[in-house]
């Protein structure tokens, strides 16, 4: 079984190890807390996963397209999972996480309801964006004389408590599944919120759970502490105001939405009480042509995480005859596109190393369900561990409430 490999560069790992040993009681307490997280412990409940598989298979019968309505953690996790697929299966799922009025209307007007399933997700059942989407769909399909068919093809995931979404869903006799009460939206990817869309798309969710458990078992055994290394590195540098930004650079299109998911996970969990490090997602090689100048020539206030994989000999071959006779581009002749990706990936890291920039490489030998399960687990562990070292609550987001209150006021 391939495992992710983490390597640090221009970071004093021995100092980090010393600091962790010095605070052994705090570290042990953090370990106990993160290993008891409901968001991760849920993966030990095989009955829940098997039920999610049954629910997903039942719901997907006689349907060939699915629309997911939700915002933030209600869809970023499943987006990250499904994005590792290539081709038609990935395209069976459409995500609607925004309320841009023109774009939303344009998309809905082109829906063929006959073989389309709609999944509406909101933990609280009061998310205004999701409620507006659902109620707009009811309005639209009612006008089209298709409301009964639309509601029959709806699956609702929300907490088992009184809420607008649950009451509306009961009123219209929609199928409802319970959102786990003790798991917040941004941590919900391993629950039915992430698993059901992933199963429908064709993801092997049992392999995802195997990747999760692989990391958790190693943490319990004491053979894996990468999350603690990063957390201690960040917190020791926050106190001296040296690191202000955390740049995640993913070298695969399959990890694009993992980057978006990670930004929410990190930002909403850590940004409290005037503390935090700003997450930035960069895509290799695309953002080498937009952000790299700043990273190399700008202020040295960033830490970088490169997510790499092996691209050698992959993809289309570059026509040898076309480029061989051209002095400036002959080095590309006869190579595969993956060879160029591999070279640029390595060249960028070597450049960072030679310029003294602090970074780590997280290498995934292969991007698949198992490795993504590992990567997302590491991400959760290091985020929560950093929060505990900083003394902030990883699981709330109080600062965004003001905007919600004002929005409600402006529409009332």
Automatic annotation (TrEMBL):
Note the Gene3D superfamilies from the entry: Glucose-6-phosphate isomerase like protein, domain 1
Q: Which Pfam families does the UniProt entry name for this protein? A: PGI
Provide a GO biological process annotation: gluconeogenesis
Q: Which GO terms describe its cellular component?
A: cytosol
Q: Which organism is it from?
A: marine metagenome
Task: Kindly give the PROSITE patterns that the UniProt entry links to this protein.
Answer: P_GLUCOSE_ISOMERASE_3 (PS51463)
Q: Does the keyword Heme apply?
A: no
Query: InterPro entries recorded for this chain?
Result: G6P_Isomerase, SIS_dom_sf, SIS_PGI_2
| Keyword terms | Gluconeogenesis, Glycolysis, Isomerase
The entry's protein name is Uncharacterized protein
Q: Which PANTHER family match?
A: GLUCOSE-6-PHOSPHATE ISOMERASE
- What would be an example GO MF term here? glucose-6-phosphate isomerase activity
